[in-house]
Amino acid sequence: GAVVSQHPSWVICKSGTSVKIECRSLDFQATTMFWYRQFPKQSLMLMATSNEGSKATYEQGVEKDKFLINHASLTLSTLTVTSAHPEDSSFYICSARDQARTDTQYFGPGTRLTVL
Amino acid sequence: GQQLNQSPQSMFIQEGEDVSMNCTSSSIFNTWLWYKQDPGEGPVLLIALYKAGELTSNGRLTAQFGITRKDSFLNISASIPSDVGIYFCAGQATNFGNEKLTFGTGTRLTIIP
C-alpha cells in the first residue's frame, strides 16, 4: 500500500518549452501533496504544498508563475515547469499524504528533468 | 530554506559493521522521520518517530527521538550491501501529515568490499 507514482520518470526538453510532471497516489486519496526539487548530491528542498481544490502554497523564493501546480483530484497533482531553462534541470520529487492510514508522507520515484 | 544538520556526511564501512548517524536541529520538531534514497529514486520511509524519547526499530534499523526534540539518531546493525545509499532525516513541526517536512543534509553510506 501507499504507492505514489510519477510520470514521466525522465524528460529532456528544449529551453523555452513547458514540461508537465504528474504525481499520482495509486492506492489512497491524498488531500495534500508536496513538490520537492533535488540538485545533484544535495538534499530535498520543498518547493510547494499542493492542496486538493485550492491554490498551492509556495516556499519562499519559488516562482509560482514558473512552477504551476494543479491538484484537481484526490489522487493527482501536476507540476508544470513553464519556459524551462537549463538551470531548471533537476530531480523533481513529489510526496503524498496518506491521511486515512498512517498520516505519513510517501514519496514518488522522482522525475529527472534536463533542459537543453 | 532551513535544513537539518546530519553527521557524518559520508561513511565508508565494511560489510557487517554497525552504523550510527545523527541529525540535529536548532528548533524543536514533534515528528522525526528517517528515509533512505537510492540513486535516481525517491526517498523511502524507514522509521517514523512521534514522541520525545521514543526508540523504534525496523529490522536491523533502530532510531531514537531525542529528549530535547532537537535531534534524532539512526543505527544500522550488521550492515549488508543493500544498505548502501543516502540516508536523510526529516523533521516535522507537528504530528499531522499535512505539515511540511524539513530535510537533513544526508549521510551517504558506502560499503567497502
Description:
Chain A has 116 residues and is an all-beta fold. Chain A contains no helices and eleven strands. In chain A, strands 2, 4, 5, 6, 9, 10 and 11 form a seven-stranded mixed sheet that branches. In chain A, strands 1-3-8-7 form a four-stranded antiparallel sheet, with no helix packed on it. Chain A is globular, with a radius of gyration of 13 Å. In chain A, 37% of the residues are buried. Chain B is mostly beta strands. In chain B, 0% of the residues lie in helices and 52% in strands. Chain B has strands spanning 5-7, 10-14, 19-24, 31-37, 44-49, 55-58, 61-65, 71-76, 85-92, 101-103, 107-112. In chain B, strands 2, 4, 5, 9, 10 and 11 form a six-stranded mixed sheet that branches. Chain B is globular and about 40 Å long. The interface between A and B is medium-sized, with 30 and 23 residues.
| Number of separate strands of chain A | 11
Question: Structural class of the secondary elements of chain B?
Answer: mainly beta
Main sheet specs of chain B: 6 strands, mixed
Instruction: Tell me the Rg of chain A in angstroms.
Output: 13 Å
Q: What structural class results from the helix and strand content of chain A? A: mainly beta
- Please count the beta strands of chain B (DSSP E, at least 2 residues each): 11
Enumerate the spans of chain B where pLDDT stays under 50 for 5 or more consecutive residues.
none
Low-pLDDT parts of chain A are none
Oligomer: heterodimer
Q: Please bin the fraction of helical residues of chain B.
A: under 10%
In helices, the fraction of residues of chain A equals under 10%
Average pLDDT for all residues of chain B = 92
- Overall outline of chain A: globular
Sheet with the most strands, sense and barrel status of chain A: 7 strands, mixed
